[in-house]
Amino acid sequence: MRHRKSILILLLAAMIFLTLAGFDLYRFAHHSNRQPAKIILITPGSSLRKITRILTADKLINSERRFIILNRLLRSSALLKAGEYQIAAGASPLEIISTLQQGISLQHKISFPEGFTLKQIKNRLIARDLCPAAALEQLTNNPNQLKKWQLPATGLEGYLFPSTYHYNHQTSCRKIIEQMLETGKQRFLEISAASPATPLNRHQILTLAAIIQKEAGNLEEMPLIAAVFHNRLQRKMRLASDPTTIYGLGEKFDGNLRRRDLKSSSPYNTYRFKGLPPGPICSPGSDAIKAALNPAVSDYLFFVSRNNGSHQFSKTYTEHKRAVKKYQLGH
Predict the structure, then answer these.
(1) How far apart are CA 329 and CA 218, in angstroms?
(2) CA-CA-CA-CA torsion for 19, 24, 30, 33, nearest 10 degrees?
(3) Which residue from 310, 244, 306 is spatially nearest to 281, judged by alpha carbons?
(4) Residues lower than pLDDT 50 in the chain
């Protein structure tokens, strides 16, 4: 009789203990951490114990033991995925487990404006920790790699399409570059398919579009600026473009284009050499590419800045000189 009573007492105690433990674990599983949204990184191969330590260090859970028990009861340990995650503000342990099981890694955005040069693109990639400087230089200056990408001798300049791109913590530098190249290729195909036939190849069109991108003060003028350069090319005239000449000067350019600069031996000096320069001077956007393929019907051969974001266009050199005198010399 006493033995039976002892067993009943033990069973009752065990039931009470399990009930209390279960209630405690239930409260833990649903308890808000009262923390703001936080970003955590779970590296590939991380064990449940390592993940638990990361969550504890960020004060996202208040008990490593309970979190481990909860995962084992749910049999979720093997389902927790590596990645970079944003844990919602006040997330409970159950919500955290759900986030890590879904494996939807945090997405970042990086934008490259139209008219960015290759140097500016590289600097932004480095600044966002997407590419180590040395690795980026090695990748973008490797002749074999450029050949694989089917790029000309002038390299990546002009071929990295300016847009906004998404990436996560595992995205490689190469993948971003190749995404920009592929986007540029597809956009060019779309625009050229909707444009009249041209004797110029893709490299020449991108070279011209890059000049238009740098010269234009607004989108509306791009077709007129394109017309000026098309007309000058047809007449075997020098393009006489400041942006190409400045690009050719590189680090020597101090912000002022001087008369002596117009005599530089750079192949990008379109004041000295006829025809298009060797390659693009920046990454042109869709509007500049459209303008290069669809120039306005015009006899204009010259233009000068009005210093208000627009240009004065002229058909003759005499008209152009008058415009320069009016808008640049203040007479």
Answers:
(1) 23
(2) 180
(3) 244
(4) none
At residue 239, the pLDDT reads: 97
d(Cα 331, Cα 324) in Å, to the nearest integer?
Answer: 9
The Cα–Cα gap between 138 and 120 comes to: 17
Identify which of 197, 201, 154, 194 has the alpha carbon closest to the alpha carbon of residue 286.
Answer: 194
How far is Cα 124 from Cα 228, in angstroms, rounded to an integer?
Answer: 33
Tell me the residue type at 72. Answer: R
DSSP state of 37: -
pLDDT reported for residue 328: 81
- Alpha carbon separation from 324 to 92, 185, 269, 302 (Å, rounded): 69, 39, 21, 10
The dihedrals phi and psi of 39, each to the nearest 5 degrees, come to -105, 130
In this prediction the pTM is 0.84
Instruction: Give me the helices (H) in the chain, please.
Output: 2-30, 48-57, 64-74, 93-102, 118-127, 133-140, 143-148, 173-193, 202-215, 222-234, 242-249, 286-293, 317-327
DSSP 8-class letter at 163 = S
Q: Which CATH architecture has domain 39-106?
A: 2-Layer Sandwich (3.30)
Per DSSP, the three-state class of 5 is: helix
Cα→Cα distances 71→86, 104, 197, Å: 20, 19, 63
Where in the chain are the domains? 39-106, 108-192, 197-327
Instruction: Look up residue 193 and give its amino acid.
Output: A
Q: Which amino acid is at 265?
A: S
Structure tokens given for 44:
């590939």
Q: Which residue blocks in 194-262 are alpha helix, DSSP H?
A: 202-215, 222-234, 242-249
Strand 108-111 and strand 83-87: pairing? unpaired
Cα 331 to Cα 328: distance, rounded to the nearest angstrom: 8
